[in-house]
Amino acid sequence: MIVVYGIKDRLNPIKARLSDVIHGCMQTVLGMPEDKRAHRFVPLEREDFYYPGGRSDAYTVIEINMMAGRKPETQKALIKALFKEIEAELGLAPVDVEITIKEQEPYQWGFRGMTGDEAKDLKYKVRV
Predict the structure, then answer these.
(1) Which fold has domain 2-118?
(2) 113 in the Ramachandran plot: left (φ > 0), alpha (ψ -120 to 50) or beta?
(3) 3-class DSSP state for residue 88?
(4) What are phi and psi of 17, to 5 degrees?
(5) What is the pLDDT along the chain (128 residues), one digit of tens a residue?
(6) Nearest to 112 by CA among 101, 123, 102
(7) Contact (CB, 8 A) for 128 and 78
(8) Largest alpha-carbon pair distance within the chain?
(9) Which residues contact 62 (CB under 8 A, 6 or more apart)?
């Protein structure tokens, strides 16, 4: 699951395109299938979103939650692909994008009535 935060006046107009870019990177780097898009957008009022100095109102935070298992080099490739594609497709400078990957063990995920370690029919690989 991916959660994206930003100032609503800047995030709302681009969220559909941003979702496409994010999912495209997830497919290219991680091999995620087309139907595994799980994105949540949290548009915030300006007064509810504090961010570091040197950033513009376009500052956007992307939190990627995934089952543990991807190699560090795979995770780094995903982060770099996101920076590159978000800048190329949406014009957001890398300084205005923050990306974090949060990993949880498969047994800490629950979906379709089971835990992630019980799922044997995933259409994507976790160990990449």
Answers:
(1) Macrophage Migration Inhibitory Factor (3.30.429)
(2) left
(3) helix
(4) -70, -40
(5) 999 999 999 999 999 999 999 999 999 999 999 999 999 999 999 999 999 999 999 999 999 999 999 999 999 999 999 999 999 999 999 999 999 999 998 888 888 898 888 888 777 777 77
(6) 123
(7) no
(8) 46
(9) 2, 3, 4, 22, 82, 97, 98, 99, 100
- Domain assignments of the chain as residue spans, ordered by start: 2-118
User: Cα–Cα distance between 6 and 11 in angstroms, integer?
Assistant: 6
Structure tokens at 118: 């019980």
Q: Residue 5 has what pLDDT?
A: 98
Tokens of 119: 């799922």
Tokens matching residue 19: 């979702």
User: Do 98 and 60 contact (CB within 8 A), yes or no?
Assistant: yes
